[in-house]
Amino acid sequence: MEDLDRRLIQKLVHYKKQNTSISFRLKSNYKLQIVGYVKKINRFALFGRPSVIINTMLIFLDEIDEHTVMPEDMKSQIIGSDGRRTSISLKKRIFVLERDNYTCRKCGRKASEGRLEVDHIIPVSKGGTDELNNLQTLCFECNRGKGGEEL
């Protein structure tokens, strides 16, 4: 089983245990949004592919865009009407940059030395939000080196 499948299964198991309604999109049809409760997870390949049952639908794990899986009540906070993640407001970005003295929190690079970005400490893909305590200033290089990891 691939790491991607393992991570996705861990997420789905968590939401099933919490009896949380989830929302996600399929890779093949990004406009289609699936909402419901995880009823059963088939870790071992059914028809040669691991799958999950959401409400009454059988969905193969390799069809799910892992980065869109989230609790339904959280979706409206970070997903726009076009299905894409909403960006952090300009006002909030400026506040974070000023709070961090226009300095990368990882390497100490200043704005005059390179491009700075506002980053999620806990990635949105792992349940992080746009709350100020989850935002930090990172330079372009540190942010790209970080990926989906927490610092």
Summary tags:
single chain; 151 residues; alpha+beta; SH3 type barrels; 2 domains; three-stranded antiparallel beta sheet; 4 helices; 26% helix
Shape type = elongated
Instruction: Please indicate the count of domains.
Output: 2
Strand content: 25-35%
Number of strands: 8
**So what's the CATH class of the largest domain?**
Mainly Beta
Order of helices and strands: HEEEEEEHHEEH
Unreliable residue stretches: none
> Rounded to an integer, what's the Rg over CA atoms?
18 Å
What proportion of the residues is helical, as a percent range? 25-40%
Summarize the structure.
This protein is α+β, with helices and mostly antiparallel strands and 151 residues long.
Commentary on this structure:
- The protein is an alpha+beta fold and 151 residues long.
- A hairpin with a 2-residue loop joins strand 3 and strand 4.
- It starts with a helix and ends in a 5-residue tail after the last helix.
Layout of helices and strands, plus pairs?
Layout: H1 3-17, E1 22-25, E2 33-36, E3 38-46, E4 49-54, E5 57-60, E6 70-71, H2 72-78, H3 90-99, E7 116-120, E8 135-139, H4 140-146
Antiparallel strand pairs: 1-2, 1-6, 3-4, 4-5, 7-8
